Amino acid sequence: MTQRYLLAVDAGTGSGRAVIFDADGNQIASAQHEWWHKADSRFPGSMDFDVEGNWALLSRAIRKAISDSGIAASNIAAVSATSMREAIVVYDRNDCEIWACANVDSRANVEVRDLKRDFPQLEAELYAQSGQTFALGALPRLLWLKRNLPDVYDRMHRVAMLSDWVLTRLSGVLASDPSNAGTTGIFSLSERAWLPDAMTKAGMRNDIFARTVEPGVVIGSVTPRASEETGLAAGTLVVMGGGDCQIGTAGLGVVNEGDCAVLGGTFWQQVVNVSPAVTDPSMNLRINPHVVTGLNQAEAISFFVGVVMRWFRDSFGAEEMARAAVTGGDAYSLLEEKAASIPPGAYGIIPVFSDVMHYGNWYHAAPSLLNLSIDPEKSGKAAIFRALQENAAIVAARNLSAIFKLSGKTPDKIVFAAGASKSAHWSQILADATGLAVVTPVVKEATALGCAAAAGIGAGLHRDFVDTATHWVRWDRHFEPNLENKAIYDNAGDRWARAYELQRQLVDEGVTTAMWKAPGL
How far apart are CA 390 and CA 423, in angstroms? Predict the structure, then answer.
């Protein structure tokens, strides 16, 4: 019997990639191309998504992955797509793209303020239905479009997400899935359907939404044109995928109510599966539809954790980078080796970078390192590096604690994945800071694996994401918490929270500049 393969296409914030898996979830080949989102010089904060240029890069990645795999394209049973969330694509009546923006686009700053002023109850009303605020939502961006590019607004026939765009390019069929559409703020958590009334309340068109299809459902097949562009066989099944965070957690086996994951990448995402009945009256947490039908995810985001570590490496790790270049090692690992000898608590150093999640009033203090001494041992490179690692875990622990309190359930373990989880030292710190066992999966870059799972469901290889997780997910390492260290981190967290509150006040007073602010603040 001919082996069947699955293709995952991932349109991420910084790159597009194609990854081929076999029917057992083993990665066979991958190819990736970096991309950048260009600002439109006319519009501050803009970050356009280049649909033509980036489709060419994705097509090249698909061709290369197929070539590197050594398999025939006809043996790929199905393809699915995942992407950065919040990014939207606008189509005309011929399903041709006429405008698109990346998730990091912040041009709608004025529109957020105007919506808050003109419709003071609307954001809270929509949050209760969608689990989203205006911060990253589509409503302010579409209002911006109406005001600034009225011709595009008038020609707009449908709005969809970036993962939907990939599948439309492959199949010619335009549809949206709940997990990614749910990040627009105009999508119902309980009904898993668009909220046209939200547009009406804001005085905007309400007839622009693509039909909704659940992840894992076949929507069409690869067209002859897409076959020519990508090297895929015409007729290959095209299956609905989803947003990168939710489909990535499915790839980690986080598929049942109460399951929990920390994704340690450029941003750290803390997610817990919750029932559709769970809401957050404080508007501190984000709630998204999961790719698993019938579940939502409460999510908190720690900003720029990976970026901060890279900043520290590039600014203070010249010695380690030079050594790594000679030995073929990794500068982060060399820094961590030194940091491991520093005692828990890192001599009281207080890093101020990402705050805990305050979704309804989302901004961060100015980047700072507090409580340094002039003792080179206690405030040297190793001590600061450890303090940064500990702080990431402390913020994650506090975000998770808020989610557990909201849901009324505490899991027995945390699944830790993405780049940071490759560090056993950091995994142990996370276990100590949370007081929970931490497990790391064999496949740590799970986004593509979850996307392949969607393709496999569409191809009939598995019943659903729960069934796929049973067959595919395997664990690498297990870390039990050290409760003595937890007491140290609880104390450090209390001091950090007080210091951070004061640092936010300095931003409010205009003394310092926020590391990041949501549009409209």
Answer: 13
d(CA 166, CA 224): 15
Specify whether the backbone of 418 is left (phi greater than 0), alpha (psi in -120 to 50) or beta. left
Candidates 249, 251, 291; CA nearest to 269 is 249
C-alpha distance across the termini of the chain, in Å: 59
For 130-142, what is the HEC assignment? HCCCCCCCHHHHH
- Amino acid at site 61: A
User: Maximum Cα–Cα distance for the chain, whole Å?
Assistant: 69
* Run of H or E residues at 28: strand 27-34
Long-range own/partner contacts, residues 348-352 (CB < 8 A, 24 or more apart): 348/492, 348/495, 349/379, 349/383, 349/384, 349/387, 350/387, 350/391, 350/492, 350/495, 350/496, 350/499, 351/308, 351/384, 351/387, 351/388, 351/391, 351/496, 352/496, 352/499, 352/500, 352/503
Q: Is the dihedral of CA 504, 112, 211, 150 positive or negative?
A: negative
Look at residue 380 and give its three-state secondary structure: coil
Distance of alpha carbon 303 from alpha carbon 141, whole angstroms: 22
Q: Give residue 362's identity as a one-letter amino acid code.
A: W
26 neighbors 7 (Cβ within 8 angstroms): no
The pLDDT assigned to 266 comes to 85
pLDDT score for 265: 87
**Beta strand pairing call for 260-264 and 237-243:** unpaired
| Low-confidence stretches of the chain (pLDDT beneath 70) | 1
Look up the pTM and report it. Answer: 0.93
Give the pLDDT confidence of 323-378 residue by residue, as tens digits: 999 999 899 999 999 999 999 999 999 999 999 999 999 999 999 999 999 999 99
Place of tokens 């090297």: 231
pLDDT at 443: 86
pLDDT at 3: 82
Q: Which amino acid, one-letter code, is at 159? A: V
Residue 20 to residue 66: CA distance in whole angstroms:
8
Please report the domains of the chain, with CATH numbers, ordered by start residue.
5-246 (3.30.420.40), 253-447+475-515 (3.30.420.40)
What whole-number distance in Å separates Cα of residue 483 and Cα of residue 195?
A: 46
Give yes or no for a contact between 425 and 449, defined as CB atoms under 8 angstroms apart: no
368 beta partners: 352
> Tens digit of pLDDT for each residue in 64-106?
999 999 999 999 999 999 999 999 999 999 999 999 999 989 9
